C-alpha cells in the first residue's frame, strides 16, 4: 500500500504542465521538473544553456535599469532648465522695469531742464514802475544800491532818473526773494558734524579737482562758494536745490565777491578722521605713473638688461589674470606664473635701479629682525610689476564682474595670495597700498568721496571715466562701478582664520565703506553711490554675516530697507531695494 502511494506521488511530480495525468515512460519532456530528472541534467551543454539564460536575464534587467536612470537624469536636467528659465525671466523682467524707470527719469530731467523754477519770479517788476513818475523819485535814487550801469551827473537832473531806480528795483527782488522750496536750513542740519568743519580744509580739494577755480570766490562749506551780492541770477546748490543770491547756508550775508566758477560746487571731501590716507593714495598714484614711464623708458634703451623683458612680464601677468576661472584650486597655474614673474624681478634675475619704497606706502614701518627686505629701497621693476598686477586686478573687476559678480571671487583669491605673501613684504608689511591707491582713484565713493553727477567736476571726483569729447555713457559708468564694488567685497571679506597669513584688506575696510555710503545725507546721494552700495552687498552677505553676526544683520537692514526709503526714487534706489527681497527669496534672510 505504501509502495503504491509512493508511486502515485512520484508520478504526480513528473506530471506534465497544465495536466493531471502522469507522463508516460519513454516520452520526451520539456518542462523544468522533467529536465531535473533527465539524464543530461549535469552535462556541460545543460550548464552552458543555464548560464546563457541567466546572462540574458541579467542584461535585460541591467538595460532596463540604465534606461530608467537615463530618464531620471533627463527629468532632472529638464527641471533645472525650467528653473534657470524662470530665473532668467525674472531677471529680464526686473531689468526691463529698471530700464523703463530710467527712461522715465531721463524724460523728466529733459522736461525740467528748459524751465528752471527761479526764472518766473522777476514778474512782480511792473508793479514798481509808476514810482519814478512821482516827485520823490529823484530823492530815492541815492538811497538805492549802486547800479551796474553808471549814470552821468548831468543826466541825473533830467527825467532819465527812472534808469537807476529801475536798476535798483531789478536788483531788489533778487536780494529779498525767498527760496523756501528746498529748505537750505534743513540741508545744513542734515550734514551733521560735517558742517562744523572750517572751509579752508575743503577749498584745496575743490581746487585740486576743478581745472580753473576762482581765486576770489568766498569759501564756504565743502568747497561751495556762496553767491556774490553782484549776482543777478539764482544759482544751483550742490545737489540741485536752488540758492538765492546773497544767502548762505547759515543765513549770514557773505562779502561782496565776483561770481564763483560753476564747477566749484561739485565735490565733498571725505572725513579725514575716517579716511586719513586719501590724499596719500592720490600721491602714490601719481608716483606710480612716473615709475611706469621711467621703467618702460629704461627698458627701451639699447643694451638695457630689461630690453624685451618688461613687455613680456607685463603681458604674462595680464594673460594670467585673464585666464582665471571659478572653482577651488583651478587657478594654480596662473598663480604660479604670476609669482614667478614677481620673484624674477626681486631676486636679481633681471636687475633694475632701486627706488625709495617710502613713496609708495601710506605708513613707513620699522624694520624687525627676520623681516624680508628691510632696506629703504626695492628694485623699481618689482614695484612696477606690482603696479601692473594691481591694474590687471582692477581691469578684471571692471570687465568681468559688472555682469557676473561671482567672477570676482577667483580674482580676490589671487589678490590675497600675492599681497599676503611675506616674500613680497617690505619690513614685515604688505605693499597693498599700491592696489588701494589705484582703487581710490577709479572708485572714490568707496573712500568717502562724494560728488554731483550733474557737473563735470563732480563726475571726475566720483570716478566717472572720460571719453573722447566728454564722459562715457551712464550705463557704462554704472557697469564699471558695479564691477569695482563686487571686487571690493571680494578682496575685503576673505577669511584668513585658517592660515598664518594676514589679510591685506581687512573686513573693517568693508564696514567703513558701507557706513560712509549709508550715512550719506539724502540730498547728497548720487546714483553712483547707490550702484556701488548694491554691488558690495549683493553676493557677499554670507561672508559679511560670518564676520559681523547680528551687527552685520542690523547693518544690512539699514542699508537695504531703511536707507532706500530716504532716497529719491531712481533706478539705483529700486535696484538696491530689490536686494532685500532677493535675499528673502533665495537665502531666507528676512530683514524687514
TrEMBL record:
- Gene3D superfamilies recorded for this chain? GLE1-like (1.25.40.510)
Cite a single GO BP annotation. protein transport
Q: Where is this region: Disordered?
A: 109-158
Its GO CC terms?
cytoplasm; nuclear pore cytoplasmic filaments
**Is Transport included in the keywords of this UniProt record?**
yes
Which keywords appear in this protein's UniProt record, sorted alphabetically?
A: Coiled coil, mRNA transport, Nuclear pore complex, Nucleus, Protein transport, Translocation, Transport
Q: Which InterPro entries match?
A: GLE1 (IPR012476), GLE1-like_sf (IPR038506)
Q: Where is the composition biased (Pro residues)?
A: 114-125
Residues annotated as coiled-coil are 71-102
User: What spans are recorded as compositionally biased (Basic and acidic residues)?
Assistant: 126-136
Chief subcellular site?
Answer: nucleus
Q: Which PANTHER family match?
A: GLE-1-RELATED, MRNA EXPORT FACTOR GLE1
Q: Which family does it belong to?
A: Belongs to the GLE1 family.
Protein's name according to its UniProt entry = mRNA export factor GLE1
Organism (species): Thielaviopsis punctulata
Amino acid at each position: 500500500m505504501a509502495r503504491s502511494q509512493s508511486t502515485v506521488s512520484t508520478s504526480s511530480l513528473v506530471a506534465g504542465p497544465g495536466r493531471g495525468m502522469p507522463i508516460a515512460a519513454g516520452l520526451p519532456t520539456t518542462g523544468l521538473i522533467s529536465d531535473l530528472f533527465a539524464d543530461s541534467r549535469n552535462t556541460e551543454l545543460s550548464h552552458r544553456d543555464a548560464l546563457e539564460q541567466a546572462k540574458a536575464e541579467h542584461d535585460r534587467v541591467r538595460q532596463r535599469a540604465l534606461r530608467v536612470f537615463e530618464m531620471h537624469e533627463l527629468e532632472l536636467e529638464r527641471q533645472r532648465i525650467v528653473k534657470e528659465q524662470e530665473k532668467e525671466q525674472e531677471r529680464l523682467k526686473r531689468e526691463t522695469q529698471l530700464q523703463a524707470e530710467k527712461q522715465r527719469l531721463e524724460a523728466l530731467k529733459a522736461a525740467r531742464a528748459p524751465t528752471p523754477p527761479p526764472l518766473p519770479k522777476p514778474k512782480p517788476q511792473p508793479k514798481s514802475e509808476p514810482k519814478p513818475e512821482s516827485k520823490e523819485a529823484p530823492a530815492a535814487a541815492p538811497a538805492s544800491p549802486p547800479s551796474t550801469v553808471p549814470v552821468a551827473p548831468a543826466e541825473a537832473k533830467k527825467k532819465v532818473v527812472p534808469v537807476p531806480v529801475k536798476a535798483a528795483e531789478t536788483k531788489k527782488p533778487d536780494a529779498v526773494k525767498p527760496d523756501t522750496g528746498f529748505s537750505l536750513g534743513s540741508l545744513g542740519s542734515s550734514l551733521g558734524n560735517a558742517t562744523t568743519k572750517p572751509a579752508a580744509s575743503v577749498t584745496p580739494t575743490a581746487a585740486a579737482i576743478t581745472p580753473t577755480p576762482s581765486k576770489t570766490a568766498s569759501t564756504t562749506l565743502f568747497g561751495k562758494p556762496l553767491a556774490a551780492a553782484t549776482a543777478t541770477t539764482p544759482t544751483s546748490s550742490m545737489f540741485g536745490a536752488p540758492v538765492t543770491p546773497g544767502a548762505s547756508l547759515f543765513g549770514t550775508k557773505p562779502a561782496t565777491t565776483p561770481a564763483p566758477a560753476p564747477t566749484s560746487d561739485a565735490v565733498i571731501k571725505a572725513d579725514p578722521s575716517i579716511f586719513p590716507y586719501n590724499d596719500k593714495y592720490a600721491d602714490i598714484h601719481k608716483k606710480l605713473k612716473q615709475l611706469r614711464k621711467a621703467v618702460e623708458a629704461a627698458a627701451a634703451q639699447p643694451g638695457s638688461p630689461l630690453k624685451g623683458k618688461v613687455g613680456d612680464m607685463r603681458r604674462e601677468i595680464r594673460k594670467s589674470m585673464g585666464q582665471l576661472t571659478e572653482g577651488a584650486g583651478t587657478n594654480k597655474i596662473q598663480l604660479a606664473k604670476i609669482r614667478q614673474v614677481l620673484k624674477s624681478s626681486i631676486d636679481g634675475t633681471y636687475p633694475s635701479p632701486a627706488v625709495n619704497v617710502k613713496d609708495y606706502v601710506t605708513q613707513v614701518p620699522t624694520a624687525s629682525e627676520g623681516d624680508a627686505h628691510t632696506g629703504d629701497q626695492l628694485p623699481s621693476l618689482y614695484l612696477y610689476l606690482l603696479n601692473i598686477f594691481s591694474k590687471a586686478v582692477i581691469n578684471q573687476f571692471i570687465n568681468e564682474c559688472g555682469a557676473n559678480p561671482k567672477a570676482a571671487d577667483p580674482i580676490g583669491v589671487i589678490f590675497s595670495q600675492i599681497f599676503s605673501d611675506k616674500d613680497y613684504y617690505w619690513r614685515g608689511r604688505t605693499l597693498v597700498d599700491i592696489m588701494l591707491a589705484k582703487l581710490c582713484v577709479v572708485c572714490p565713493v568707496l573712500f568717502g568721496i562724494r560728488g554731483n553727477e550733474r557737473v563735470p567736476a563732480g563726475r571726475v571726483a566720483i570716478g566717472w571715466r572720460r571719453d573722447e569729447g566728454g564722459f562715457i555713457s551712464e550705463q557704462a559708468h554704472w557697469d564699471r562701478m558695479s564691477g569695482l564694488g563686487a571686487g571690493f567685497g571680494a578682496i575685503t571679506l576673505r577669511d584668513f582664520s585658517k592660515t598664518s597669513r594676514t589679510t591685506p584688506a581687512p573686513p573693517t575696510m568693508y564696514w567703513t565703506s558701507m557706513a560712509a555710503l549709508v550715512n550719506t545725507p539724502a540730498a547728497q546721494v548720487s546714483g553712483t553711490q547707490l550702484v556701488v552700495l548694491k554691488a558690495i552687498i549683493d553676493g557677499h552677505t554670507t561672508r559679511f554675516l560670518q564676520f559681523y553676526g547680528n551687527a552685520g544683520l542690523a547693518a544690512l537692514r539699514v542699508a537695504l530697507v531703511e536707507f532706500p526709503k530716504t532716497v529719491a526714487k531712481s533706478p539705483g534706489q529700486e535696484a538696491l531695494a530689490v536686494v532685500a527681497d532677493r535675499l528673502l527669496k533665495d537665502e531666507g534672510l528676512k530683514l524687514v
